[in-house]
Design brief:
The protein is an alpha+beta fold and 311 residues long. 36% of the residues lie in helices and 14% in strands. A hairpin with a 7-residue loop joins strand 2 and strand 3 (99-103). The structure holds fe (ii) ion.
Length: 311
Amino acid sequence: MSKFFAKLTSTKPSMYSKSLFLNILGMQWYRILFFYLIRKVKASVTIKPEYKEYLKILERDGVIVIPNFLSEADYKEVLDEYQTLTPSFVRTNHNLLPRVDGISMYDKRVLEKNRNLFLKSDLIRSLVSSYLNRYYNLQLPIDYNRIYCNQEDLDKPRNGGTNNLHFDAPLRIVKIFYYLTDTTQENGALRYCKGSHKRNNLKRLLFEYKLSIRYSLNKWNKDNKGEYGDDEPWVTITSLEQRKYNLNEESIEAKGNSLVIFDVGGFHRRGDNNTLISRDSIQLNYRSIDTLRNYLFPFEKRIRSTIKSSK
Ligand SMILES: [Fe+2]
């Protein structure tokens, strides 16, 4: 039963359909339209006046940096908590360079003491809910993430799908990085193509159509079954395409204690890190916002409490 619930809470629509036939029929467009419409259905979220300017920037660029998110005292506490857990970090992908270590978003030890600084943040809830036109009802997945190189990794070729330009899904979904330490172009700051979250133009729609066909053709190639692994559903964007579709990568640099909120429906990639300075962050993931369980969660909570009180 718990596996069933886990599936309902973690499944998000992937970037492209695997079916070549459906993609030729324009499946990518139907998916974009479908998710656009279901987000429009319930326009009941309003932004608090003090965050309106943030929402404007997020709508315009698809990404926003909010410095000094926590008070100095809270920032120190969060840092201390992070450091006590670093010895128990695990590698998330053994083949990846730079390396990525962390603790899973489902592990209760992540921000055990200070989780509410993020979960109960008025700024985060108001801004993200307004941008997505949805409330996130489930427990928000939060993970620790550390990207780094060892001495022997320096100057080796980088690999892994997330190093390549991609978007995560054909709709608005938000991810938040809280940078624990100063993050620059040199130590792997997020790279984002500002404005690339906007899909309401023919040029972009035709581009995604083309990419969806390329993706399924790759999947049908029995030699490699796709350019990347199964959990990395993307295709390589050529530099010519980057120019043609105005995909200008920008390094989203920020000081420690900054919040970076970005729409993963826009093109982005992980920055390269070829230094001995790690990129340390806390990541909040809204990918389950369109799952059935998120919609039904208020009912689930009511049923659970009824059962509890009748015991
Ligand atoms: Fe991504």
